[in-house]
Amino acid sequence: MTTMESLIGLVNRIQRACTALGDYGGGDNTFSSLWEALPSVAVVGGQSSGKSSVLESIVGRDFLPRGSGIVTRRPLVLQLHKTDEGSQEYAEFLHLPKRRFTDFGAVRHEIQEETDRITGKTKQISPVPIHLSIYSPNVVNLTLIDLPGLTKVAVEGQPESIVEDIETMVRSYVDKPNCIILAISPANQDIATSDAIKLSREVDPSGERTFGVITKLDLMDKGTNALDVLEGRSYRLQHPWVGIVNRSQADINKNVDMIVARRKEREYFATSPDYGHLASKMGSEYLAKLLSQHLESVIRARIPSITSLINKSIDELESEMDHLGRPIALDAGAQLYSVLEVCRAFERIFKEHLDGGRPGGDRIYGVFDNQLPAALRKLPFDRHLSLQNVKRVVSEADGYQPHLIAPEQGYRRLIEGALNYFRGPAEASVDAVHFVLKELVRKSMEETQELKRFPTLRADIAAAANEALERFRDEGKKTVVRLVDMESSYLTVEFFRKLPQEVENKGGNPGGNPQATAAVDRYGEGHFRRIGSNVSSYIGMVSDTLKNVIPKAVVYCQVREAKQSLLSRFYTQLGKKEGKQLSQMLDEDPTLMERRQQCAKRLELYKAARDEIDSVSWTR
Ligand SMILES: Nc1nc2c(ncn2[C@@H]2O[C@H](COP(=O)(O)OP(=O)(O)OP(=O)(O)O)[C@@H](O)[C@H]2O)c(=O)[nH]1
User: Where is the Dynamin-type G domain (predicted)?
Assistant: First the structure.
């Protein structure tokens, strides 16, 4: 069943939770404001327009501070709760939970004290609201926000800016489309000059959310009345105007009881020749009921949008919390677990780069497919196997005794000399892949959200990963150089066996001495050219082999190792760390910690608000 109590009470509870969390609209809040989404009634009026009197009359109690100058210097959120007939009236402040005030003089005193607590005695104003709940059989369920009276001049001890500051604060409330404006104007002043109406006209030109109230009807000059205003002829609003007669200063001085004052007000309208026909729609009691009903209907209409704001905010906050990560545990076991979790997240991303889930791994294939073959092609074999060099190497190898059939030593020296050239491209491939891996480590660190929280751990992991990559590079270099050395240590005999034998008489002189021709030819240019060409084909064969096996060695020693054991040593060291060292690693950025706390609190608020709404059933 929907009751006014349930809906207005619901908003009251959410409002209190908002204030407890510092969400009262305005300010530099980076979170969406639930407060601003809640419908509320703000009381607006110039100084001495009768604001306090109207509020007290609605409550039926004397409880607001009085005095000269600006008395209301912080918004007062006044939440009225109707209780059963005969039950005792009491008041409670949000800042003093569990303390019940039954003496309303003490309530007044506490409002003064609490105002000064934030603003100091400097007469400054502050937007931080004071929450006061009043439980009474003489009230209707209603929430009103009393704001500082609009003023035109600063008084002694107040800064010049106060006039503007008050207007800015009042505006920050009435600007909100969810704010119902209770605009108070005194009847003994021209409505055209009313501060409240001036402001309302600006922020609510259609008059949809403004309730006009005329006070001090009893103080109008004899022979004049406020019918033009009350009947909507002077200034039209969507809701009816309400006339009020509050206690005069003399009544206040005489301590006239509020309940008596309400009765006198009723009598005033009932017997008034001017307003008698409007009597049932005048007075503070009628105003309270009107506002309560209106507030309830506005809340009912807004519940779906409030619910969707809450759900949206919960989703946003939860995803931000996921992003920020869980708070860090205090015991060493849980800390170790956290460190390992972060490391695993990093390793997963790193592997994705290598395996193709993320970009970058393809650059390793680029090394094998382009850089290595190009480097092999560029090796200076032409120079090494030039006729001149072949001749020189072979002759030097022969020594004083030129070779008889084939220059075995010469061949070996030429081949060994050529094979040495392969070390360069082999080592360069290892380096190139090393740099790709290093870059992928850097990228993966950046992409690991969890690491953003922990700068120290991030540096530790980066150092461990780079140290591991260096080790893999050393191993890779040793292996590829060994592959080249293996080529020099044993030549492929098959290759030489398959070489066509030199034809003794080929190109010789058929008429001459066949033996003499062969001897000349054996040490002639054709012979050395053939040697050069044979060595070149052998080297070509070796080059093809290395082109295939160097990538295997590089992947085996560097890529595979990086995938399998990039952080293995780090893990071993981690196991030996003490709790203190672990917590140093998890030394989190303080701004993140702060943000997480705020998010968690906010999330709690929204979830509580959602539960509140869920627990209230209402008819649509
Ligand atoms: N006779 C009569 N006096 C009223 C009425 N309303 C307010 N007053 C008197 O007008 C004076 C100002 O009223 P307040 O209720 O304090 O007005 P306020 O707008 O709260 O004033 P500030 O808090 O100073 O801005 C008091 O002396 C009230 O007794 C009224 O309807 N009739």
Answer: 35-304
Q: Identify which of 246, 252, 287 to mutate to test ligand 1's pocket (most ligand atoms within 8 A of the CB).
A: 246
Give 436's Cβ-side CA count (13 Å radius): 24
Domain coordinates in residue numbering, the chain: 37-286, 332-504+519-587
Q: Whose CA is nearest to atom 31 of ligand 1?
A: 216
pLDDT at 150: 87
* Å from CA of 49 to ligand 1 middle: 6
Structure tokens given for 61: 């109690």
Q: What's the confidence (pLDDT) of residue 15? A: 75
pLDDT averaged over every residue in the chain: 86
Which residues approach ligand 1 with their CB closer than 6 A? Answer: 45, 47-53, 71-72, 149, 215-216, 218-219, 244-249, 252
Look at residue 514 in the predicted model and tell me its pLDDT.
46
Radius of gyration of the chain (CA): 46
Supply the ipTM of this predicted assembly. 0.97
Mark residue 67 as left, alpha or beta (left: phi above 0; alpha: psi -120 to 50; beta: remaining): left
Closest ligand 1 atom to the C-alpha of 49? 19
Spans of the chain below 50 pLDDT: 1-2, 4, 26-28, 503-520, 619-620
What is the rounded (10 degree) CA torsion for 4, 91, 263, 272? -70
CA–CA gap between residue 73 and residue 151 (Å, rounded)? 12
Fold of 332-504+519-587: Four Helix Bundle (Hemerythrin (Met), subunit A) (1.20.120)
Query: How high is the pLDDT of residue 327?
Result: 74
Alpha-carbon torsion (415, 420, 424, 425), positive or negative = positive
37-286 classified as CATH 3.40.50.300: yes
What DSSP assignment string belongs to 445-505? HHH-HHHHT-HHHHHHHHHHHHHHHHHHHHHHHHHHHHHHHHHHHS--HHHHHHSPPPPTT
188 token code pair? 């003994």
Collapsing DSSP to helix, strand or coil, 578 comes out as coil
Q: What confidence tens digit (pLDDT) does each residue in 547-577 have?
A: 999 999 999 999 999 999 999 999 999 888 8
Nearest residue to 520 (alpha-carbon basis) of 530, 507, 532: 507
409-414 CB contacts, 8 Å cutoff, 24+ apart:
410/531, 411/496, 411/531, 411/534, 411/535, 412/491, 414/384, 414/385, 414/390, 414/531, 414/532, 414/535
Q: Output the pTM of the full model.
A: 0.62
Count CB-CB contacts under 10 A for residue 307: 15
The helices-and-strands tally (H runs, E runs) of the chain is 26, 8
What letter does residue 217 receive in the DSSP assignment?
A: G
How far, in Å, from the CA of 150 to the mean position of ligand 1? 14
